[in-house]
Amino acid sequence: MGILNITPDSFSDGSQLGKSSGDRFVVDLDKTLFKAERMIEEGALILDVGGESTRPGASPVSISEELNRVIPVLSALRSRFDICLSVDTSTPEVMQAAIAEGAEIVNDVRALTHPNALSLIAKSNVAVSLMHMHGQPRTMQQTYTYDDVVAEVSQYLRERVAACTSSGISLQRLIVDPGFGFGKSVTHNYQLLKNLHSIAALELPVMVGLSRKSMIAGATNKPVGDRLAGSVAATSYALLGGANIIRTHDVAATIDAIRVHSVFSNA
Hints:
By secondary structure, this protein is an alpha/beta fold. 43% of the residues lie in helices and 14% in strands.
């Protein structure tokens, strides 16, 4: 899953897909389509389009602003490429508009806890990724406590899966994500990575987002732009733990890790 952040403030690539328009962020469709085409050529099977940063400390954006960022991009991608499209949002209005534009996956860091999100997805036929997050982006890295992070994340995801199925969303449409970096210390993140098989035990596809995150800096002490090798190493461990979908900024290198894992697993 290749990441297309249509934001001015995402932690790694914020503003890269925008253009100058005074003090307002405006999506540059040419840049976005060029990046999307490159990711597809490198092997991406899914493109994940997000219009609201969920980095630690991020502030929410209005529904209208998120729609203005995301929907033109989804429309342009759908008209040009034959690829699975995902929308990274927690907002039901954005989910609905994105589904109308051809999004086949809703990637929700809040696991459909927003009012009306469950009922909206139940009425659709899209897949949905349910992620664990402790708190909200603005404050999630300020206070977090776990007695057993692996058990608590697993239990939360189990509860969200139950909420989905009781609302009429079939298990075949569900993906789970432990939420690396979302309200967790470096130690918590590596405990989750080491025990990812506990998440895989839910018997649903597991998606992970490790790319360039602070947990990589916690091990390598490298700035965001120099975290590729660490991200690929973490990806390899995630694959061994049962990850099925790898969400990444760096498609080509990640595809190589996936290929090596595939040959290794079948040796």
